[in-house]
Amino acid sequence: MKLTDLTVSRTIPATPEQVFDAWMDPKSPGGPWLGAAELSLDPVVGGLLYLKVEYQGRTWPHYGRFLRIDRPRLVEYTWVSEATQGVESIVTVTFEPRGDGTEVTLRHARVPDDAMGQQHREGWTWILNALFERFASRARR
Question: How many structural domains does the chain have?
Fold first, then answer.
């Protein structure tokens, strides 16, 4: 099986600390965990994550473990799902200050280079857009 790396990024109108905290908080609007049908999250190095996502009329379980957490710069965890064909892929999210905002870059390494693997780009882009909207709508108020 051929594997590839996917990278998506977005500048979020908030500080790295605010964006990092939103990413890690399972109750935070715009975070990757909000809206999961089921969630078990232990956000410490070595801690496990499990989430079930409802998408296109199906349930998609995801499993992983936290590898690195360096607030507010980086979080890294493994990611295993049907879409990775059981391969333990690695998600690395960095939070870099950019003027009044934060450049969030998500690299998903070792994703199968097929249609299901490539759908991760769409999913991560959706999450970064939701994170952007969470902070942009707050700034508009």
Answer: 1
Whose CA is closest to 110, among 82, 137, 80?
A: 80
> Which residue range is the domain that position 96 belongs to?
3-140
Dump pLDDT digits (tens) for 68-101.
999 999 999 999 999 999 999 999 999 999 999 9
> Looking at residue 65, which CATH number applies to its domain?
3.30.530.20
Whole-angstrom Cα distance, residue 16 to residue 46?
A: 23
Strand order in the sheet with 74-81: 3-12, 101-112, 89-98, 74-81, 58-70, 48-55, 38-41
- Tens digit of each residue's pLDDT (9 = 90 or more) over 5-48: 999 999 999 999 999 999 999 999 889 998 899 999 999 999 99
